[in-house]
């Protein structure tokens, strides 16, 4: 978050990206730079060392499938720092907190609670960095990040110019934003500001979280944080032990008419009615019903406890993960008439 001038980082040749993607794919970048200040990011546009080279921005690498070596420069986001920057009075009042894009997301959520500022607890233990959160508009257990978002700063890589984006400019959607579409590859996010409500109310009606809270006699923010962590650890593999990118597919949304037709054939289909009348389907249930849980192609497999997660059992390549994902898509389309869309960016 610093605006001070910083010396440009060392240009690393033939850099392994294994530690920079949560699938653990052993791919390499022709060059890499670790960026620790906004000034360094802004200076990239005039850096003769990387002129005319393709650029790839990597934070925690938790939402990317790297299928091959990258013949360009990997920009490794290392901007850190977190602070309370102010308060607002409207809407019952809120704290404004800022974090550098390279901050670990889960650690940042825990820090906000330690400051007595709830609001992000439902998003605990999501892998990745703060800077990646608005790109994906991360969400879990009844909350999307966009609901707590205030603004962000980003540098346009081609010009070195800084820009601020409010919620409207980010164009948040379901696991979607401007930065995955028209802005893809154009900007590097340097810091994000969140609005955390003083008039906090718990969101604990998601079935798994409600079960984890049963018998505790608590429904405060820390209890919800602890419940979410326990649920995620029970259901999802730790990427440090078994490479993965979390939920691989978005939960598909269908019209009420399409859902009625599907339910007539599959009465126990898992679904969630949306405010606009459409129906969100549980992608994991669809995949499981097609018999994919635990199956593999090479070292790439569907997790044996959660069909929505594709994993690297060891030695898998990004191409194998995509082959597995395509096979799953075809089977779900053939059986249910529903198209699955991948959450990670595939490169």
TrEMBL record:
Gene coding for it: murB
Native species: Caballeronia glathei
MF terms (GO), sorted A to Z: FAD binding; UDP-N-acetylmuramate dehydrogenase activity
Taxonomic lineage from the root: Bacteria, Pseudomonadati, Pseudomonadota, Betaproteobacteria, Burkholderiales
PANTHER family (UniProt xref): UDP-N-ACETYLENOLPYRUVOYLGLUCOSAMINE REDUCTASE (PTHR21071)
SUPFAM superfamilies tied to this protein: FAD-binding/transporter-associated domain-like, Uridine diphospho-N-Acetylenolpyruvylglucosamine reductase, MurB, C-terminal domain
Protein name per the record: UDP-N-acetylenolpyruvoylglucosamine reductase
GO CC terms: cytosol
Role noted for this protein: Cell wall formation.
Keyword set includes Flavoprotein: yes
Annotated catalysed reactions: UDP-N-acetyl-alpha-D-muramate + NADP(+) = UDP-N-acetyl-3-O-(1-carboxyvinyl)-alpha-D-glucosamine + NADPH + H(+)
Cross-referenced InterPro entries: FAD-bd_PCMH (IPR016166), FAD-bd_PCMH-like_sf (IPR036318), FAD-bd_PCMH_sub1 (IPR016167), FAD-bd_PCMH_sub2 (IPR016169), MurB (IPR003170), MurB_C (IPR011601), MurB_C_sf (IPR036635), Oxid_FAD_bind_N (IPR006094)
GO biological process terms, semicolon-separated: cell division; cell wall organization; peptidoglycan biosynthetic process; regulation of cell shape
């Amino acid at each position: 978050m610093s605006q001070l001038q910083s010396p440009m980082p060392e240009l690393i040749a033939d850099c392994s990206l294994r530690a920079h993607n949560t699938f653990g794919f052993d791919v390499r970048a022709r060059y890499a730079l670790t960026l620790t200040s906004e000034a360094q990011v802004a200076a990239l546009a005039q850096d003769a060392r990387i002129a005319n080279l393709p650029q790839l921005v990597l934070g925690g690498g938790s939402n990317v499938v790297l299928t091959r070596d990258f013949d360009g420069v990997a920009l490794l986001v290392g901007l850190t720092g977190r602070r309370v920057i102010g308060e607002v009075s409207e809407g019952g009042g809120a704290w404004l907190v800022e974090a550098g894009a390279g901050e670990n997301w889960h650690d940042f959520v825990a820090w906000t609670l330690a400051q007595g500022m709830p609001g992000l607890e439902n998003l605990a233990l999501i892998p990745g960095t703060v800077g990646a959160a608005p790109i994906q508009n991360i969400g879990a257990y009844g909350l999307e990040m966009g609901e707590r978002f205030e603004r962000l700063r980003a540098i346009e890589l081609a010009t070195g110019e800084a820009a601020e984006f409010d919620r409207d400019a980010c164009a948040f959607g379901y696991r979607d934003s401007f930065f995955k579409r028209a802005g893809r590859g154009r900007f590097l996010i340097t810091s994000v500001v969140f609005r955390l409500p003083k008039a906090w109310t718990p969101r604990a009606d998601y079935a798994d979280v409600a079960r984890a809270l049963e018998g505790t006699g608590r429904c405060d923010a820390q209890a919800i944080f602890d419940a979410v962590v326990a649920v995620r650890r029970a259901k999802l593999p730790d990427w440090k032990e078994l490479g993965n990118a979390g939920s691989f597919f978005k939960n598909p949304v269908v019209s009420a008419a399409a859902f009625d037709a599907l339910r007539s054939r599959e009465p126990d289909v898992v679904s969630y009615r949306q405010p606009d009348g459409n129906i969100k389907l549980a992608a994991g249930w669809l995949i499981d019903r097609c018999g994919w849980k635990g199956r593999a192609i090479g070292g790439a497999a569907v997790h044996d406890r959660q069909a929505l997660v594709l994993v690297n059992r060891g030695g898998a390549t990004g191409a194998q993960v995509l082959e597995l994902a395509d096979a799953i898509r075809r089977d779900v389309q053939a059986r249910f008439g529903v198209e699955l869309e991948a959450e990670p960016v595939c490169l």
